[in-house]
Amino acid sequence: MYWSTLLDGMLVGFSASLPLGPIGVLIVQRTLQNGRTSGLLSGFGAAMSDTIYAIIAGFSLSYIVTFIEAQILWIQLGGVIVLTGLGVKIFRTNPVTQLRKQKAGKHSLVSDFVSTFLLTLSNPLAIFLFIAFFAGFRVLKSEYGLIGHLIIISGVFMGAAVWWTLLTSVVGLFRSKINLRRLFWINKIAGLAIIVLVVAAFLFWVIREYFYV
């Protein structure tokens, strides 16, 4: 039963990570600019954040969900500001300067993990996404017990990690074909894409929450 439970969790984690939103664009950009290890650790940071939200959803920590529901507008605004600022920073980044910093040893893989973890954590709507996936795939049944729930949560992290490993591996194959001029435009496109995705997602949420009848 435990293997089946683990696979259920992996399916949820993999599926929840598939949509290539702002974080996905950031991880692709880091893989192309800084290498596969940078992208992979960034992806693992996102997977860890998703796991925390899966824990909240899976164990029904209602007081946290209630707080987030009450403060969702301000939390969303904070996330929009941070991610939009990130998009602007990437858009304005000079790849030559970034490569010089890497050669000087100023690039930190730890910061890649931590920054993506915190950025992904700034999107509390992920809790409701996991609730929907748990319900849709019919996991977290009452008979599983504590051990079963923990196995599912472990599977969520593993499933998300598998997705980011696959994505960064595929993107890493094209890194050798990227010159500075292409990297310059990749930064522009990635930065602009992050801004557009973040603003569009926020506006869609506002319209659905406050104007949809």
Automatic annotation (TrEMBL):
<keyword id="KW-1003">Cell membrane</keyword>
<feature type="transmembrane region" description="Helical">
    <location>
        <begin position="147"/>
        <end position="173"/>
    </location>
</feature>
<keyword id="KW-0472">Membrane</keyword>
<feature type="transmembrane region" description="Helical">
    <location>
        <begin position="185"/>
        <end position="207"/>
    </location>
</feature>
<feature type="transmembrane region" description="Helical">
    <location>
        <begin position="6"/>
        <end position="28"/>
    </location>
</feature>
<feature type="transmembrane region" description="Helical">
    <location>
        <begin position="40"/>
        <end position="65"/>
    </location>
</feature>
<dbReference type="Pfam" id="PF01810">
    <property type="entry name" value="LysE"/>
</dbReference>
<protein>
    <submittedName>
        <fullName>Threonine/homoserine/homoserine lactone efflux protein</fullName>
    </submittedName>
</protein>
<keyword id="KW-1133">Transmembrane helix</keyword>
<feature type="transmembrane region" description="Helical">
    <location>
        <begin position="113"/>
        <end position="135"/>
    </location>
</feature>
<dbReference type="GO" id="GO:0015171">
    <property type="term" value="F:amino acid transmembrane transporter activity"/>
</dbReference>
<keyword id="KW-0812">Transmembrane</keyword>
<dbReference type="InterPro" id="IPR001123">
    <property type="entry name" value="LeuE-type"/>
</dbReference>
<feature type="transmembrane region" description="Helical">
    <location>
        <begin position="71"/>
        <end position="92"/>
    </location>
</feature>
<dbReference type="GO" id="GO:0005886">
    <property type="term" value="C:plasma membrane"/>
</dbReference>
